[in-house]
Amino acid sequence: MPTIPDAQPADSPDVTVSGVLFALAELAVTLSQPRGRAEPEALAGTLDCLASNLATVAAGLRASHTPRGATSEPAHQATTKERLRRIDALDLEPIVFKLMHPEPRETALSLADADQDIALYRCFLKLCALHPDATIVPTRQLDRVWHTHMLDTAKYRADCDQAFGFFLDHFPYFGFCGEEDRRAWQEDFALTRRLFWEHFGAEIGAQPAASACRNHGDGSDCCAGCIRPADVGTRPRPDRSEPAPRPDLPEGARP
Asked: How many domains does the chain divide into?
């Protein structure tokens, strides 16, 4: 249970508010005296003290008040340490709830298991901040949490902006584009496992997901958590060398 300090710093809000209350009490005493007995100098001094304390309270409120969800500086200008702090501050409780109440035929997690997966997911996000030029490949377990976060598109967008200052894109094709691509996927997953162990002492298992995380360039167009080729042709396509049966589509859906 947290302890309450015996004393407050001289510039703390509690001390300043106490000064205001004391000055108001002094003013009330002064004004309650019969007319002619209240000393002008004493009244002026009490009013000066009151004004000074009120100004200090106002300045403290302006300095300390930050709207909910707002940050002191844009995330893309924040230091790595500040980004890590913001990742720790993300409210991921709705994601915990969704993991516990998934879609039909998906496995529901217990609260303890969901909390464990969310803790690892925060580590995943931190690796994206710590190693913006690396390709971070999540496990299938982590990818499920990532997908669950992304399903709440408005929250995911806001969380990315708060923590990184850019949208954390998701590329689900890494490892599908030939043998060389698959080797790169396996190598990057091995790197991800090593970084998890070095930074967090966590062993994340041996099953990567078909998604990856990479920051391109200076970060303004980052896709930490993905590979986003500029050429859309590098994404895999289905084999249409053999004509597929024409689907039975409603009239308005036919090409």
From this structure: 2
